[in-house]
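Entry:
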Amino acid sequence: KFFKKKFPSFNSSIDEIENGKMTLKKYFHIGIAVDTKHGLMVPKLRNANNKSISNIAKELKNLSELCKNLKIDKKELFGGSMTITSLGGIGGSFFTPIINYPEVAILGIGKAEKKQKFINGKFEARTILPISLSYDHRIIDGAEAARFNNDLKENLGKNFAYKLAVWMSKSISLLSALLCTFIWGTTFIAQDTGMDDIGLFIF
């Protein structure tokens, strides 16, 4: 829903841009950047919109292992809709992810951390998740990119820190949970009161 109905241009490619053509895709193959000792690889989680959060978590782990052991089929590195990359495990914050051609956008996830925010006249500790979005201005304009990030923030829902703890307790990675939110525009845990924040950065 998030991809298909609200932001279809994010699910496109520009391999024929020189001929004035762009391709709007009906499938949802999400690229996941995997850091290996052999270099960066971006396998595709195919038909991600048809998978449950637990299946996505298992497949992400499997794809990562195949890349790290150089057993990934080369065809799995092509045909993506959009890429998600995470520096959270390394400890990065905001950064400038590079678009994986011929895709038109890439979402970068930094490390969630506690920060003080001034709310209702006092400072409160909030868990901030940095999100960085890079996009091709020939296809996506700045206003659409800002709406994309803001919708993603809203769809992550309330009480982000609590949800993150629940996901982790079920062996669901932050990347898996974010991926599901990103594709379907929904979360899998009932809404709670209070709200932690998502830091947004677009390029």
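The longest strand covers residues 122-135.
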